[in-house]
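Batch queue: ligand-bound targets. Current item pairs a single chain with zinc ion. No template structures supplied; prediction is de novo from sequence plus SMILES. Inputs echoed for audit trail.
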Amino acid sequence: MAFKDPERKRAYQRAYDHARYAANPQKARAKTRLYIEQNREIVNRRAREKYNTERQRPELRAQWAAQTRAWNRRNPAPARANKLKARIFELLGRACVLCGFADERVLQIDHIGGGGRKARRENKGLPVRVKFYRYVLRSLMLGENKFRILCANCNHIDARSRLFISENVRQARRNLLKEMGNRCVRCACAEYEALHIDHVHDDGHKTWGSRGGSRLLYFKIIRQQPDRFQLLCANCNWLKRLESKSGQLEAA
Ligand SMILES: [Zn+2]
Ligand SMILES: [Zn+2]
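Prediction returned. Tokens below.
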């Protein structure tokens, strides 16, 4: 069909496209996606040009800002963070890569070799979890091998291996943990470097107030008041924390 009037030609094309899309939306979308993939440079250049001309127009910029605000309202930060997290776990797997532990409540995204702080610098202004997950996702998309899934135990063991601890304190801790049974009171895990000294009643503030103190002094207090402390592995420590948190939510 030939049109002399370009306006009529465009209208016809639009109606044709709409009809095609309505007839089979999935097929039409797939075709569009394929076109974008095969012509990425052209598509990107056109988008850039469009953006550069349109952003000169203040009324459009105000409209974009309003759209962003509305989108943020529809997608509150925690929900966005959870969505991103789910995608990361899909890509990295839902079990600890070192020990296979698969309770998702204690699985953590480990920055291989440390260095998570950069994530915070690179995404200023976003909610902190969204920021971190976006950083992780971008890295995964780039095919960098920077992240892996670890359970809290393996993560703790790994982090401790990079920590400087004086031989004095190491020895004192070994002695104390031996006295306390050298295993987690919940799951009997005996992975020494994964064990935490836990405040049974979550009253750590009573030991320290708002300040920290020397390890050796801390160990002394534990010996004096053994009923207030117990050994938990990092996984069980997380679970306990989550349980007490949901308990608080239910009580509130
Ligand atoms: Zn593990
Ligand atoms: Zn445990």
